[in-house]
Amino acid sequence: MNFKASALILPLLTTLPLGGCFTTTYTHGHVITGDMLTQVQVGSSREQVELVLGSPSTTSSLSGDAYYYISQKTATTAFLQPDIVEQRVVAVYFDDDGFVKDIGNYTLEDGKIVDIVTRKTRTGGADYGFLTQILRGAQNPGLGL
């Protein structure tokens, strides 16, 4: 092997392992742009909201009707677990007649992380170990199981 060939192969072999270290970002869910959001005003009908924003990720009717548009951006480096970089929930609240009465725009700083893939939200008890949960229950007998 001559000097020129080894001068070309050596840099290639040293950079090859770094190929898997690049970060890749993925966007999941229903991404709402600023332009889309400005088209939905208080007083808009449910049909207008669906026309502009599309079908919601989920709905609620507990304390009035609401549409929720959920999106999440994750970053993955090589084989590591993905990190949640950005999470956004746009909530559109309707009055009894089906017109928009309020719009909420929530980010990762406003709440807990929602796992979109498995559709599970971490509960407060998941933050404590088994023994800690038992001892906390003993301290607060009114919160019994």
From TrEMBL:
Record keywords, A-Z: Cell outer membrane, Membrane, Signal
InterPro entries: BamE, BamE-like, BamE_dom
GO biological process, one term: Gram-negative-bacterium-type cell outer membrane assembly
GO cellular component: Bam protein complex
Keyword set includes Membrane: yes
Residue span, Outer membrane protein assembly factor BamE domain: 29-103
Gene3D superfamilies in the cross-refs: 3.30.1450.10
Gene Ontology MF annotations: protein-macromolecule adaptor activity
Signal peptide: 1-20
Protein name per its UniProtKB record: Outer membrane protein assembly factor BamE
Species name: Roseibium aggregatum
Phylogenetic classification of the source organism: Bacteria, Pseudomonadati, Pseudomonadota, Alphaproteobacteria, Hyphomicrobiales
